[in-house]
Fold this protein.
Amino acid sequence: MPRRTDLHRILLLGSGPIVIGQACEFDYSGTQACKALRAEGYQVILVNSNPASIMTDPEMADRTYIEPLTPEVVTRVIEQERPDALLPTMGGQTALNLAVTLAESGVLERHGVELIGADLQAIQKAEDRLLFKQAMERIGVKVCPSGIASTLEEAEAVGAAIGSFPRIIRPAFTLGGSGGGIAYNPEEYAAICKSGLEASPVSQILIEQSLLGWKEFELEVMRDLADNVVIVCSIENLDPMGVHTGDSITVAPAQTLTDREYQRLRDQSIAIIREIGVATGGSNIQFAINPANGDVVVIEMNPRVSRSSALASKATGFPIAKIAARLAVGYTLDEILNDITGKTPACFEPTIDYVVTKIPRFAFEKFRGSPAVLTTSMKSVGEAMAIGRCFEESFQKAMRSLETGHAGWGGDRAEPDVSDSDIDRMLRTPSPERILFVRTAMLRGRSDQQIHRISSIDPWFLAKLRRILDAEASFLKGRALNDLNAKELLSIKQLGFSDRQIAWQVGTDELSVRSRRHALGIRAVFKTVDTCAAEFASTTPYHYSTYERPLQRLNDDGSLTVLAAATEVSHNSSGRKMMILGGGPNRIGQGIEFDYCCCHASFAAQERGITTVMVNSNPETVSTDYDTSDSLYFEPLTLEDVLNVIEAERPDGVVVQFGGQTPLKLAIPLLNWLKTPEGQATGTSIWGTSPESIDRAEDREQFEAILSELEIRQPRHGLARSESEARDIAARVGYPVVVRPSYVLGGRAMEVVFDEQELNRYMLEAVQVEPDHPVLIDQYLENAVEVDVDALCDREGRVVIGGLMEHIEPAGIHSGDSACCLPAVSLGTGALSTIREWSRDLALALKVQGLINLQFAVQRDADGHEIVYIIEANPRASRTVPFVAKATGQPLARIATRLMAGESLVEVGLEHEPIPPLQTIKEAVLPFRRFPGSDTVLGPEMRSTGEVMGSADSFGMAYAKAELGAGEALPTDGTVFLSTHNRDKPALIPVAESLIDLGFELMATSGTADALKQAGLHVTSVLKVHEGRPNIEDLIRSNQVQLVINTPIGRQAAHDDKYLRRAALDYAVPTVTTLAGARAAVEAIATLQSQPMLSINALQDVHAPRG
C-alpha cells in the first residue's frame, strides 16, 4: 500500500544522552529515520537533549529541539508544532516510556497525535512483565517460571513460590537491565528487588527462576501492516544466560542451532510479534535454550529498534531503522527496495556468507570499589564488531578492534601466571577477562569438556577457540619468520591472526611480518556486505578484509595460471579521495562526539566533490552506516588493517584528527610507513596538522619548549621517571599536585594528591613509574576556573576561535565531567583577551591545519587579579566540537575538513569568532548507578558517558534545563543538606544565605553547622553515620532531603562522606560536589522559582539569519 497522505508532520523522540544501556545506536537509528521520513516528503520534528548526536544537526530535521526529554517539555513541543503523529520506536527505552506517559495522560489524544510504529497497547503488552507473560501463555510460547511483584511483600511471596536460588530480577520499562540482577541469597534478593522496584517507572519487577547456563539467542524481526514478517538476523550469545546480552560476546548468524531449532525460534518469533501487535517496524526477541534437552523459553521482547538492531543492520547491511520508519508511514515490505542490492525488496530475508562477532568494551577501572563481574544489569560502555569468513577470523579481529592492547586472542605477550583455583574462579564468574582465561585454561591442559562444565560456554565455541591455539602451536611456536612458508602463513591469517601476534611468536616486528607475507604473495582481499550471500550484485561498497587462496585458471593448452585472490574493491572514482579513520568502540573519554566529527568530515568532503572512505569498527554509530561515506571498511583500527585499506583504496589524504586518541596513536607509525617505498607507491599523505606537530603538543618536554619560546605561563610541573624523582618534584612544585601518566585520554589514572603519603599510595596502586612510562606532576590550581577553547587554523596562518567555554566545576575536575557554558559568564576582559591571544600563538606555533583544542585555568591572586595558565593543547578535534557547533550554528568539523583539504578560512566564510545567540550549558551525565560501590565525587579522571545541552536567555534557566536533561532536576523547595571541608566553609556561607532567601531549610553536620551558625544563619545539626541515629543517611533514605551539597577534599574526606553520596544516589537526590556547582545550582533554582515554565527553542529559529 502507498505511503499515508493523511500525515504531514511527524514527531520523533530521541534517546537523550549516551548512558550505559542506551548509547549511540539510537543516534544511528534516529538519523536513519529522519532521512527516510524527509525523503518521503514528511516534515520531521525532533526532540533530543544530546548535542553530540548527528540527529540533532539542524539539517537532519525540519524542527530540532535540543531540550530535556520530559513529558512537560515534549507536551510544550506538541502544543507549539502540532504534529500529526509520534514515532516512538527510534529513541530506545527513553522515547518509548515518554510516549507511554504522553498517551496515558491524554496529551496525544487531546492534540490529535497518533502513535505510529507501535501503539500503546503493543508497547504495554511487550514492556509490562505480567501482560507479556499472559500473552505468551495465550499462544503457547513457554516463559521462564516466574512471578510479578509491585511491592517488596509481593516479591517475598514470589520468591517463596519459586523456592530455589539463584533468582533473576528484571524491572519493567527499563533499559539495559537497570536495577535488576542475579540474587544468590535472601539478602541479595531483598536488595535487588528494592533497587528494581525503584528503577522501574511502573514499580514492577519480574522474578524468574534462574536459567544460568542456558544458551541465549536473539532474533531481529520486522512486520508490516499487511502482516508480512521477515527475520532479519539471528544472533547467538557466546556467554550463557546470566550475562546481559549487551555485555556478552555475540555472534551472527547463530552458530550452534540445528535447522529444526532455528525454525522453531523463527516460528515463535513470528507468533510473538503478531500477538504483541507491533504492526510496523522492528522488534528484538530474546530466547533461552536448555542445552541439556532443547527446551525453549522466551525471555523478553523489545517492541522498538534496539542495540541489537544496530548490530544486525551492520552485520547484514539491512537498514532496519530506515525500513522501520517507512513501514510506520504505510509502506509494506515488498514495496521497499533494498539499498544494498538495488534489486531485491525488503521482504527478501538477508542471507550472509561470513561470520560477525561483537565484543563489548568495559570501564571498570574508572569505578574503583565496583567489582568487574557481569550480571543481568548492563555495564559495558561500548562495543566493537568484526567480520570474517569463519568464527576464528571474526573473533580475533574483534579482539584487536577493542583497542585494549590485545592484538588478538592472546599470543602477543607472556601468558599470565595464575593458580589453578584462580583459573576455575575466572571461568565460573562472568567478567570481561573470562574469555582470556579460557585460553589460559586450555594452555594448562584443561579439556573442552572441563571448561564447558565450569563456564557453560558451548562446546562448539570452545572447539573453535582450541583450533586457534592448535594453529599457534603447529605453525608459530619455536619458529623463525623465514621458516614460515606461504601455505602456513595463509592458514594462520585465515584464522584471524594479526601480524603483531605472529611477530611476537616468532621474535620479530609486525612490519617485518608484513614484508614476508607480501613477498610470499599473501595479501588481504576485501569482500562485500551485500545482504544476499552474493546472489545479487551489490551496488554499495561496504567491505571487510579476509585472506583467500590464489585462484588458478585452466588455459586452453591444459596449463594452469595462478591469479591473485579476488578482491571486490572497485576503483571507479575520479578526482581526490580522502580516508577518515574513526574512533573505534565507544569508551569513557572517547565517545559519540568523535564519531560526530568523522561523519561531518565525510559530509563536507563529499560536498566538495571529494570521494570519502570511512574505516571504523563500531557497529553503533552513524559513521558505519553504509551511506555516510562513499566506501565503508568495517575493520580494526590497527596499523596493519589501516595499511591494508590504504593499499586497496590509495587515497590522496588520510585524516587522523577526528577519531580521538585511536587514530592519533597510529599517526606517527603511519607517517613513517608512508615514507617507505611501499607507502610512497600509494601516493597517500596525512592531511591536516602533521603528526609531528601533534606529537610536539603531547610530549611534555617538547611542549614546554614551545611555551617557553612564546612566553606562555603554565603551572609548576615536572616529569618523573622514578618514584624518588616523583617525590622530589612534588615537594618542589608544592602540594596539592595533580599526578597522571603521560599520553592518556579521559584522565585515565589521574588524581589530585594532597601530601606525600597519598603520592606514595598513588604510585603503589595506580601506576608503575618507569623511565619509558613517566608520570606528569603539576601544580594543582585551587579554586581556579577552567576554560576550553576550540579554534580553527588554516594553511595561510589565520586563526579563528570557534568557541570559548568557561567550566562551572573548578580546575581539577576533568573537563569531560564538568559542566561548561558558552559564552563565558564570570571571566574578565583581560583574562579572555590573554586566552584568545595564547590560543592564536599556539595554533600557529604548532602549524595547525584544522582544529585545535586548548585548555586554560584562570586563578585570582590575593588582590583579585586574574592570572591565566595554559594546561594543555591538543591539535585535533575535541569532545566539545558538537556542542560548540550547536551553540554557535557553525559546523566546526565540516569547516576543519575544508581547511585540511586546502581551503582557507576566508574561502570558507568564517573570519570572526561566532557569538552564540543564547546562553548555552553542556552538562555531563555520569553512570554511577550502574556501579554499586563506586563514589560519585568528581575528580580529574573522566567517568561520564554522555552529555546534554541546555539553552536559554539566562544562565540560570540554561543551567536548570541542562540539569533536568541530565536527570538531576533541581528542587524549588524543601531541605538542603550541607557538608564541606574546612577550606570551603567561608565560601559556603553566601551559598547558604541564598538558599535561605529562596525558602529552603538547611541541615548540616556539626562542623559545617557551627560555621554557618557563627555567620548568623539558621541551620539544623544532624549526625554523621558513625555518630548515632537518626543520622544523615536515615534522613536521605526517608526522603527528608531534597538537595545535597558535599565538597570533600583529599582522599580521607572523600572516603568518609562516600556513604551519604551513595544514599543520595540510591534515592535520586541531586548531589553537588563542588562549590562552583552549588553556586550555579542556586542561580538555577532562583530562576525556576521566578519562571516555572521552561523556555523552549527550535535550533532552526535560534540560528536563523538575522534580517
Notes: DSSP finds 39 helices and 41 strands in the chain. Residues 568 and 914 are 46 Å apart (CA to CA).
